[in-house]
Write a structure and sequence with these properties.
By secondary structure, the protein is an all-alpha fold. Helix content is 69%, strand content 1%.
């Protein structure tokens, strides 16, 4: 029996019913941050959308629309009803819902009024102690990584807060994973990359490039030459595979030693060393190809 089914006093139907359609295109990252965990909980609960709607006291069509992100941004009333039936932590869901409502340009009065209509008297208001300790240990390092891509302190703060709220929703799964650090890192990374500006499918690191000391200290013609070289390097970095990109960012843009990087990513120090070596080779190859697109000796032909 799922936690939600026990709380509601009835077993969910054994028949799977029609498969829920995907989240609609255009749903923003903040909205997805709470919608995806809710859909995941429904998927593992054994409930159908019809059963969930019945227990929550709303029509199936309204519940299905909410679960797919269709139509207007939902009121907290229906969101909370589904959260309770699914047995999810209320506090992080409410924060995530409110953050997404602000992103959807809902007025403060609408958000606060929607929440105020629901008396929330059940569920813990603070995360598990282990989660609190994990957030305290990793929060600053997560923010340091996110700021490379977002270049905005407010956006960085929001994505880190979102990461730990989402992690709270998945805390049992995170604890059961092979390595909680790696599990949590993937949550952070998805949030960062969903918000980071991209060029040709790669995160845009131009802002980070122009903030480097080399560019700041250059003057005159040297500044243009240095900027061109720096932009080429950062463009090549942005094209690296995910784990190589992360290692290079943490090691060389954030100045972290090998062991802290390994701890943050949930891998071994040997893996970090090997990944960095491969990344350096790849960067050398990419930069040489751009400097000599027809081959290093094309002028001798």
């Amino acid at each position: 029996m799922s936690p939600a089914a026990g709380a509601e006093g009835a077993e969910p139907p054994s028949r799977p019913g029609r498969k829920l359609g995907p989240i609609t295109d255009g749903v923003n990252p903040q909205h997805r941050a709470w919608l995806e965990p809710m859909r995941a909980r429904l998927d593992t609960s054994g409930m159908t959308a019809s059963y969930l709607a019945e227990r929550a006291g709303f029509s199936k069509s309204k519940v299905t629309e909410l679960l797919r992100g269709v139509g207007l941004y939902p009121h907290w009333e229906i969101t909370y009803a589904l959260v309770r039936v699914l047995g999810m932590p209320v506090t992080p869901m409410c924060r995530l819902w409110a953050a997404a409502a602000r992103e959807a340009q809902k007025k403060t009065g609408w958000i606060e009024g929607s929440i105020a209509r629901i008396v929330v008297s059940t569920g813990p208001s603070a995360p598990p102690l282990e989660h609190h300790a994990f957030a305290k240990t990793n929060g600053a390092r997560y923010a340091s990584y996110a700021d490379v891509f977002l270049r905005d302190s407010g956006e960085t703060s929001r994505v880190v807060t979102e990461t730990f709220d989402v992690l709270w929703l998945y805390w049992n799964e995170a604890l059961a994973s092979s390595h909680i650090q790696n599990y949590a890192w993937q949550v952070l990374r998805r949030g960062v990359m969903a918000r980071a500006p991209h060029t040709d499918g790669c995160p845009d690191l131009a802002g980070a490039a122009f903030s480097t000391v080399a560019v700041d200290n250059a003057t005159g013609l040297a500044a243009f030459t240095q900027a061109e070289r720096t932009l080429a390097l950062f463009r090549a970095v942005s094209e690296l595979p995910d784990v190589q990109l992360d290692v290079i960012v943490l090691r060389h843009l954030r100045g972290m030693d090998i062991t802290p990087v390994a701890d943050l990513l949930g891998v071994t120090p040997a893996f970090v060393i090997s990944t960095e070596r491969h990344a350096r080779r790849s960067l050398t190859t990419r930069l040489n190809l751009r400097a000599h697109p027809e081959g290093p000796h094309a002028s001798d032909r």
